[in-house]
Design brief:
globular; two-stranded antiparallel sheet; 15 helices; 61% helix
């Protein structure tokens, strides 16, 4: 790392560390917006593995977000012990599961369900795959919405309340932290936890991108038939992509439940899946900085536009609905961006596939090798030897 990159890295790190402390001076609402944006960054990075790396269009990704959220809600509240006498006898004070157990549990459960989703869709592509995954997301939402009878597990449309806040080494993130005369708000404490998870996810995604598995995913994205012909196990690679992408969604959902303290099926509707896909596409498919930029913009833009739509509503004496105005502004901004930047705000750099400027070696005097003008030497021909048919055999 050269000096210039080191300085940029240190400045960015310092800015990220002091950002919530500066924002909380203007009110906790701004810090909450940044917290939600970080959760969406986690979701977008997970979906980027499925859509950006493997090229599998998944419109039901919000289902894994919901699975992680409800898993933490059930393990961090009295919902199960209040409705099942056998569990109440064993845990009279309810479940209060540690974060050390919740994150691996959410990751594993979401990954397994992601692999189960990918299993019946291995032969589907394009629009057909999108329809199946969309149906899976809606099935999970309806399932959570109706699983309040005959046994009340999810409390149906009422949702689950009283979810525990996260505790780390005795520090309760649900309460402000006082250091002398200075107070760090609860939402600022959650910010640092979410930031650590985002950094960890970025490192994993970056390593996957440059690994053999990541190259296999990209080969499937470019041409699945050619990838299979080259010996890549496309079935296992697709299942791995679904599972790993879903695991990030499960962890993000668990953090969302702890942060909100309440979950309900309305938080995991189809529009959430559309927004997550839009973050990946708008930022730049397959490019980590672009995905992060798209997630931050689309997560924060609706909240920022509240300060624009409100005055416009008051100017028209309430004839225009503020929520509809915000949706209109978001749609117009996305259309404008996609018209001016069709590959995303921060697309991945082009990797040229043609070897431009490469010249064929000069023939060895006395050899029978003939090279036509403008045609490169085949890869399996030996300079100075006679031409032989191209073959995979030595």
């Amino acid at each position: 790392m050269n000096a210039k990159k080191l300085v940029v890295f240190l400045v960015a790190a310092a800015a990220l560390l002091v950002l919530p402390l500066l924002l909380q001076t203007q009110g906790n609402a701004w810090v909450r917006i940044v917290d939600i944006a970080l959760l969406y960054v986690l979701l977008a990075l997970g979906l980027n593995i499925v859509v950006g790396y493997a090229g599998l269009l998944d419109l039901g990704y919000v289902a894994f977000f919901a699975i992680g959220a409800y898993l933490f809600a059930l393990l961090g509240s009295t919902q199960l012990t209040d409705n099942f006498e056998a569990l109440k006898a064993m845990f009279p004070n309810g479940f209060h599961t540690s974060l050390i157990l919740v994150i691996p549990a959410a990751l594993v459960v979401a990954a397994l369900l992601g692999a189960l989703l990918g299993a019946p869709t291995l032969k589907l592509r394009g629009d057909y795959l999108a329809i199946v995954t969309l149906g899976f997301g809606e099935i999970i939402r309806v399932f959570l919405n109706t699983l309040d009878h005959p046994y009340n597990v999810t409390n149906g449309p009422k949702g689950i309340t009283g979810i525990d806040s996260i505790r780390i080494f005795g520090l309760n993130l649900g309460r402000p932290l006082k250091i002398g005369d200075y107070t760090i708000s609860s939402v600022s404490l959650y910010y640092y936890l979410f930031l650590v998870l985002v950094i960890f996810t970025v490192i994993i995604s970056y390593r996957l991108q440059s690994s053999r598995v990541g190259r296999g995913w990209m080969a499937i994205r470019e041409d699945e038939i050619a990838a299979k012909a080259m010996g890549i196990n496309t079935r296992n690679m697709k299942l791995l992509a679904f599972g790993m992408g879903a695991s990030f969604g499960g962890v993000s959902g668990a953090m969302f439940a702890a942060f909100q303290g309440f979950v309900s099926p309305e938080s995991f509707n189809l529009m959430e899946s559309v927004m997550i896909v839009s973050m990946v596409v708008l930022g730049g498919i397959g490019h980590l900085p672009g995905v992060i930029l798209g997630a931050v913009l689309l997560a924060a833009l609706p909240e920022v536009l509240r300060y624009v739509a409100g005055p416009l509503q008051s100017m028209t004496d309430g004839r225009l609905d503020a929520s509809i105005l915000r949706q209109l502004f978001i749609a117009l901004s996305m259309i404008l961006i996609m018209l001016t930047r069709p590959r995303g705000l921060w697309p991945s750099p082009e990797h040229g596939k043609s070897l431009k400027g490469r010249k064929a070696p000069d023939p060895v005097p006395g050899s029978t090798q003939a090279i036509e003008p403008g045609v490169d030497t085949p890869a399996d021909e030996i300079a100075g030897g006679a031409n032989r048919p191209m073959s995979i055999n030595p």
